[in-house]
Amino acid sequence: MDIIFYHPTFDTQWWIEALRKAIPQARVRAWKSGDNDSADYALVWHPPVEMLAGRDLKAVFALGAGVDSILSKLQAHPEMLNPSVPLFRLEDTGMGEQMQEYAVSQVLHWFRRFDDYRIQQNSSHWQPLPEYHREDFTIGILGAGVLGSKVAQSPANLALSAALLESNP
């Protein structure tokens, strides 16, 4: 089994060693421009077109929740990947919790009017501002997938309402 790996920012050597340890029977290598040797599987994040094009792959595994970069490149370069090759994506590898934390921080930042108070602080002015009331607004979450659904749980913990917008392509 031959595995090629590409990620523009990960510690590639760490991944290669971890994959070799986890799958000792596999031949694992980092992909570099000009590498046209055969491979059975590709583990990738935002791969260049040339990495996947012309290979007889059994599957491609995206190292993240989204495969948009691959799909958009496929529209412009249909030769990049045979349509029969399965394309897998990660659903949640801890990203859901990170997204929850980020969403909560942004909602509270807005709800507690931190920007408005920062403006006052910068002008050495202090005036209490009218409070927002939870019942007066709903948080909109675009995307009802794994991450969006996880994020939608957070407002309820703060006694806030949320609405998920799901699109079906």
TrEMBL record:
It is an enzyme of class 1 (oxidoreductase). Keywords: Oxidoreductase. One of its GO terms (molecular function) is glyoxylate reductase (NADPH) activity. Gene3D superfamilies: NAD(P)-binding Rossmann-like Domain. Its EC number is 1.1.1.79. It comes from the Bacteria. This is Dehydrogenase. It comes from Escherichia coli.
